[in-house]
Specification:
Blueprint (H helix, E strand, L loop, with lengths): L1 H23 L3 H23 L14 H12 L5 H12 L11 H11 L8 E5 L5 E8 L4 H4 L5 H14 L6 H11 L15 H33 L2 H6 L4 H9 L1
Antiparallel strand pairs: 1-2
């Protein structure tokens, strides 16, 4: 219960700060969205403190695609592709988003940041490659440190294992969550018994951690070097959304 209260209290603080920022920027539409979620979070906090059961066992549906993606990434804790974020949102939060709706989301976030830097509590942004350019199809959160938002040679595997552990640790018996965990477990040696039955979450997490220990030190060093370069060479916008490549510049000039 204490962990859930801590999460809600942090989220309430983020939302209150976001409402204030949106109001100062005269962004009424965004302020209304944040206020609606703030009221929902405060009701959840009241119910948890009082011991009351909410009317529905499922968490309230988020009002925007952006918030659903944010919630999915927070659960996973690592850079992820849209289809994994969608699967997590559907399995654990009753999400309604599709991968196709995420196509333009990062560009929208970048435009918002350029028009009002740091005007929101967080941004959905790109993972950064070893060239410090945006990694294709990988989303992260601006609130994560640079070391979690850059990707070295081993990072895709490390992030997948991190995400698998996060999914395995969710205490739910939803069929959609079981199917997601099974798909992930098939890509981890020793995580399944070779049948089509739902895998044991503890076994999946243990197998993922065992492989993670093999890669973690090297990946941590690679990411630290990339993060140091990004901090030294990139401005605020590029640190979140990546440095423009030559192909990107040609494409923008063509339009």
């Amino acid at each position: 219960m204490s962990d859930r209260l801590d999460d809600l209290e942090r989220r309430i603080d983020e939302l209150r700060a976001g409402v204030r920022t949106a109001m100062r920027a005269r962004d009424g539409a965004h302020a209304r969205v944040l206020r609606a979620e703030l009221r929902s979070a405060e009701r959840a906090w009241d119910a948890l403190v009082s011991g009351e059961q909410p009317a529905k066992e499922e968490p309230p549906r988020l009002v925007t695609v952006r918030e659903q993606v944010h919630q999915g990434l927070r659960l996973l804790g690592a850079a992820a592709q849209p289809r994994l974020i969608v699967a997590v949102s559907t399995a654990f939060f009753g999400g309604t988003i599709s991968s196709s709706r995420l196509t333009s989301l990062r560009r929208d976030e970048e435009r918002s940041f350029r028009s009002l830097p740091f005007g929101r509590p967080y941004y959905l942004c790109a993972a950064l490659t070893d060239r410090l350019s945006p990694a294709r199809g990988l989303l992260t959160l601006s609130t994560w440190p640079l070391e979690r938002r850059v990707v070295g040679p081993l990072s895709p595997r490390v992030d997948f294992l991190t995400c698998a552990i996060a999914v395995a640790e969710q205490k739910t018996h939803d069929e959609r969550a079981d199917r997601l965990l099974l798909r992930m477990a098939r890509n981890i040696p020793g995580a399944t018994d070779g049948t089509l039955s739902p895998p044991d979450p503890g076994r999946v997490a243990e197998a993922a951690r065992a492989e993670l220990r093999v890669h973690a030190d090297r990946d941590t060093r690679d990411r630290a070097e990339l993060a140091e370069r990004a901090a030294a060479q990139l401005g605020d916008t590029a640190r979140l959304f990546g440095a423009a490549t030559l192909s990107t510049i040609k494409k923008e000039n063509a339009t």
